[in-house]
Each structure stands twice: as C-alpha cells, then as structure tokens.
User: Fold these one by one.
Assistant:
Number 1:
Amino acid sequence: MKHILCYFVIISISLNACSHNNESKCNLLLQKANNNLYQFYASNDTLSLLRAKSYIDSIDCNSFKYKVFNTKITLFMLLNEYSAGIEYVKTLNSTDFHNKYQKNMYLKSFEAMLCEAQGDTIKSNNLYREIISEIQLYLDKTTSKEALADLFVIKSKIETKAEILKEIELLKTKGKYDNDFLNAVAKMQSENNENSVVIPVKE
C-alpha cells in the first residue's frame, strides 16, 4: 500500500512540475509576442506582427485563455484578419467580459472593419452607430469610466475629433466624471490611433 501511495505522490509531483513548466513556457511566449508587437509600433515592420502572431498562436495553456485576449484582438486588427477576429470573439462567453455590451462591441467592430475593407462604409458606419447606442444605454444606467472610454473609441470611427472633444468638454460641466480622467480621454482622442487598444476581459 505504501508503495502505491508513493507512486501516486511521485506522479502528482511530476504532473505539477510539467504544468509549471508549461505555464512558464506560455508566459515566455506571451512576453515574446508582446515584445514583437511593441517593435511593430516602433518600426512599423510587418514581420514583427507576424512573429507576434506566431508566438501567440503557440500558446496552449488553458489558463491563458483571457491573458492573451488584448494581444490577439490587436493582432487581428493590425493584420486585417477581421473574419478571424469575429470567429475568435464568438468562442468567448458574454459573462467573461467586464461589461455585458463588450462582446457585441468586439463582434460588430470586426464586422464593421470587414465591411469597410470591402468598400461598404454605409453598413460599417451603421454598425458603429449600433455599438454607440448599446454603450450609451449601458451608461444611462451606470457610471463607468471603462464604458465611457469604449464609447469614445467607437465614436472616433464616425465622428470628428472636434465633435468628440466638444462632447468631452460638455461632460466636464456635468461633474459625473473627474476632469483628470476626461483629460486623459481627450488626449487619447488627440493622438487618435485607429487600432486603439481594447479593454481586456476578466482573467
């Protein structure tokens, strides 16, 4: 009996060691993916994006399902892989996101980008308007800095910087959000990166 127990203890330790080694490998792959993503922003070298995609696709740890979310979404956008982005977001549950509107936001954003790439700007703009309405409905019921940031990221797709900055100035007069946060949102709009960083899901 002691030999059997000893055997199971050894097997358990071995499995835990393998699991730890696998997690370490996945951490390293994620770090390499993000490093290459930063290199792309610094150099605009598409090869950095492809290397980042290769590293992120090599991660097979279940616990990393949501840790890779931001990087994967960003890569789908930068590589114009909109259909793949749609299929990826479909694999996630609505309850995995911080706010209930966010899964639809990502799905419709990828669909809008796909439409735009195909020359259908009317459908693209309509999809962005749908997203804006959904986020606004959420904000009507609660105060959320995260949701407000999402709102202005989407609005930047169909509104001018001047229009958005005017809206932000109006928000300052209402006192619902602190001015430091609104100034940060305004700065983000001024820098206006069309592939804005998305909000992460829960880990």
Number 2:
Amino acid sequence: MILWLPSFFLVGMAVFNGYPRLITTNDGIGSLRYAISAGKAKPLLALVRGFILLYPIPGWILHWLMVLSYPFLTAWAIGTALDTTETA
C-alpha cells in the first residue's frame, strides 16, 4: 500500500507536466527535469492528478471521457487549422 503514494506522484508529474513538455521540445531529459521540478513545486497537485489517473473509478471515467471526446477535439483541430484561402 505504501507504494501507491510514490506512484500517484510520479504518474501525476510525468503525465501532466513531462509529457506536454516532451511533445513541444522533443527533449526527453529536459522534460523529465521540468516534470520533477514542477512536481516538487506542487506535490499535492501531482498526487491528486496521479490519483485521478491511477485509481480505478475516476481513472475509468476520465479515460472514457477522453475516448468519447477525441473525435470532437479532432474535428475542431482540423477545422481551425483549415486554410480558408485555399480552393479545391
């Protein structure tokens, strides 16, 4: 049971802080350093985020919301990125 706390913290900081930084900078070590510093700055927030992702009930609900909202987000992103000056 004691391993749940570090896993909540690590998942919360890596998924919500490190992964977006990795996508934007394409620097794995830099994004990991940023995730660790952001996680140490707000440890309770990292724990809560990790709990939401790893605990079965809120994690299940969150993942279903992401799966069901993905087509709408994709359509919105394509619609906003569409070049209106280009003709078919």
Number 3:
Amino acid sequence: MVYHVIIALNSVGKMRVGNIISLLEKKGLELIEIQKKITPSKAKEFTDLGQLILQYKLNEMEAMVFYRGKFASDVLKKEIKYFYENHIELFFENDEESVDPNELWEFIVEKVFHGGKDVPLMFVTTSSGENGFNGSFIPNMFESDGPCYLPARTLIPLG
C-alpha cells in the first residue's frame, strides 16, 4: 500500500516535513518519493480543471470536517487554491499492515502539530502503487500522461 501525505507549504516553503517523515518512518512506513510544487508569487494561475478536480477529491475526505470548522468558507477556498499551487507530496510504502489514512492524518496532527491550530492543509490518502507507478493525488492538467476521467459533477465548482 502506498500512502500519500500532501501538505500545503507555508510562506517559507516548509511545513515540518522532516518531522512528518521521521514520525512515519518510526511507525514503519518507508519514504519512497517526494514531489514538490511551488508556484512563484508573481505567476498568476487561473482556476483550472485540475483545481476543480482537487476540490472534488478533498470534499470527499474526512479531514475536510476539521478544516471546515477551522476556516470560513471563502477563506477555505483561498487556502485550497494556495494548497493546489504550493504543496509537497510525500509517498510512503508499507507492505505489512494496512493503516487507515484518516487515523494516520490524526496521528500526524497529534504528534507533529500537537493537535493545535497550527495544522496546515494536509491530507493523507492511499493508492495501490500499481505497476510501480505512484501518481500524484494533486492533478496536473499540463501533464499528458493519459486521459482524465471524472464524474460530471466535478466540472461544477462546489460551494
């Protein structure tokens, strides 16, 4: 099983990534890849299909309950846009036992961020890592790796 930990970067480009890696390695997960996306502040990205797909995926996750309670709706939209443009995705592998992604998210929030209000936008999800490929959870519409299939309601902005 491959676990993706996706974290919004703060203004200096970091968000306790080393602490998260160390914590999960102690838990028995093996770091296999890191992908980072930083959009320069002068670059202007308009809402695109990738961001809409991300919003759809995030609305299905349990961690969004926490963020909906933490941020007002309009602030959360801005945070998700920033998250889409500036994030780091950590890929961990675990062959032994399956861990619930929401429990892993709660574990990171408790141990690294001490359950406080400093928790950045961060999500944990899984994939099977089929054929040795670990695709990013964050869609990038500029990559032409293949067709993109999505539910029709994804094309309508939520909220």
